[in-house]
Amino acid sequence: MGTKWIIRLIEAAAVTVALAAICQELEKPKEQRRWHGKVGFIPYDFRKPTSERIQELFWNPESSEVFTPTLWGIGWSINIFALLEKLRIISESYESEEDFLMPTQTLRRILERRPVV
C-alpha cells in the first residue's frame, strides 16, 4: 500500500484542478476567455507557449520570485535566475547583454554621442 495512495491522491487533485480551470473558463463569455488564471491559489495556463513567456518564466532577472505560474497546464515553474541568485550562485552584479556587448563606459559614451545618420 505504501505511497501508492498518496500518488493517486495527488493525481486526483491535479485532474480536479485542471477540470475546475477549464470549467471556470467555459463559464465566461467567449470573448472574455483568457485560458490562464488561478483556481484558488493554484495557477493554470492553457495558452500556446511562446518564446517570450518561456524566458519570462524560466529566466527572469526582473523578478525575485522563484516559483512562477506554469508555462502550460496547472501548477508552478521555476525562475532559474531567481533560484541561482538566492543560492548566491549569481551575484547582484549580473551583467546584462548590453553590458557584455559594450563593457566600457567610455565606449558607451562615444556611441551615445555619435550623430544620427
Polypeptide structure, described:
The longest helix is centred in the N-terminal third of the chain and has 23 residues. The chain has a domain of 78 residues. 44% of the residues lie in helices and 14% in strands. 8% of the residues are buried. It has five helices and five strands, in the order αββαβββααα. The mean pLDDT is 86. The protein has 117 residues and is of the alpha+beta class. The chain starts with a helix and ends with a helix. The protein has a three-stranded antiparallel sheet, with helices on one face. The protein has a two-stranded antiparallel ribbon with strand order 3-5. Strand 1 and strand 2 form a beta hairpin.
List the helices and strands and how they pair.
Layout: H1 4-26, E1 36-39, E2 42-45, H2 51-58, E3 67-69, E4 73-74, E5 76-78, H3 80-86, H4 97-101, H5 105-113
What's the order of the H and E elements? HEEHEEEHHH
Report the sheet with the most strands, covering strand number, pairing sense and barrel closure.
Answer: 3 strands, antiparallel
Mean pLDDT: 86
Strand order of the largest sheet: 1-2-4
Radius of gyration: 21 Å
Query: What share of the residues does DSSP label as strand, in percent?
Result: 5-15%
Helix content: 40-55%
General form: elongated
Low-pLDDT regions? none
Number of beta-strand segments: 5
From the N-terminal CA to the C-terminal CA, the straight-line distance is 75 Å
How many H/I helical runs? 5
Structural class: alpha+beta
